[in-house]
Amino acid sequence: MRKPLLYTLLALACLMTVVPLLYMVSLSLQTEAETLSANAVLVPDSPQWGNYAELFVRAPFGNFIVNSLVVAGAITLAHLLFDPLVGYVFAKFRFPLRNTLFVALLATLMVPFFVRMIPLYVLMATMGWLDTYQGLITPFLMDAFGIFLMRQFIQPIPDDLISAARIDGASELRIYRSVILPQTRPALAVLGLFTFVFQWNEFLWPLVATTTPEMRTIPVGLTLFNQEYFTLWHLTAAGSVILFVPTAILFVFTQRYFVRGIALTGIK
C-alpha cells in the first residue's frame, strides 16, 4: 500500500515540476496573439521557431549569452580554485584563531546581499568598474558556503596520508594537488554546479552594476521584453528556454558526481 502511494506522490511532484517547463517551451513557440488569448494555448497550431531568431533582432541577445557565459564561467572557475584551497587550510592546518576566523566566515552567510550591495556598488563606482566584466565578477570570486562545503569534505581525509606525503618530501602545494584534490572531485562537482547555476541565473547584481544593454546578462536582458504597458511573452519564454538549456546540460554531465557528492557530504 505504501509503494503505490509513494509512487503516486512522486509522479505528482514530477508533474508539477515538468508541466511549467513544458508550458514555457510551448509559450516560446506561440504567436503574440496566442500568448494574449483569453484561453491558454497548450499546443500552438503552428510552432513559431522564428521566435528564437527574433530574440537576436529585438535585442543584442548574443551579447547577453556571451556575458552570462563569461561571468558565470569566471566566477565558477574562481570558486573551484580558491574555495578548496581555503577549505583545506581550515581543515588541516593549525594556527591561532582558526576556529574564530571560521565562525566569522560562516557568520557572513547570515548577512543578506542587500546589505552588502550598496557598499559594493560604491566601491565598484569608485574604482570605475561599473558596466565592466571585472565589476560583475570580482565581488563573487570567493564564497563562504563553498569554503564551508570543501572544509567539511576535506576534514575526514586521514592525516596519515598528508604526513606520509610530507615524509616523502612533497611540498604543501604538491600535497594539495596530488593528495587532497583527487579525493574531492564529487564535492568540486557539487560546488561547480551550484556556483554556475546561481551565477547564471543571477539578476540583482548585474541589474545594478550594468548601465548599457551590451553588458547585460540573460536574466537582465529579458527585461527588455517586459515593459510598463505590455509584455512580449513569446520572446520572454524563448529567452527563458535558452537560459535553462546550459544548466540542464551541465547537470546531465555532472549528475553522477553531483549525487555522489551530496551523499558523501551528508555522510561525512
Automatic annotation (TrEMBL):
Gene Ontology CC: plasma membrane
InterPro entries assigned: MetI-like, MetI-like_sf
Listed GO biological process terms: transmembrane transport
Major location (coarse): membrane
CDD domains: TM_PBP2
Membrane topology, record value: Multi-pass membrane protein
Record key words, sorted: Cell membrane, Membrane, Transmembrane, Transmembrane helix, Transport
Domain of life where this protein originates: Bacteria
SUPFAM superfamilies according to UniProt: MetI-like
Domain ABC transmembrane type-1 residues, every copy: 65-254
Pfam families: BPD_transp_1 (PF00528)
Transmembrane segments: 64-90, 102-124, 136-154, 175-198, 232-253
Subcellular locations according to the entry: Cell membrane
Protein family according to the UniProt entry: Belongs to the binding-protein-dependent transport system permease family.
Protein name in the entry: Carbohydrate ABC transporter permease
Taxonomic classification: Bacteria, Bacillati, Actinomycetota, Actinomycetes, Streptosporangiales
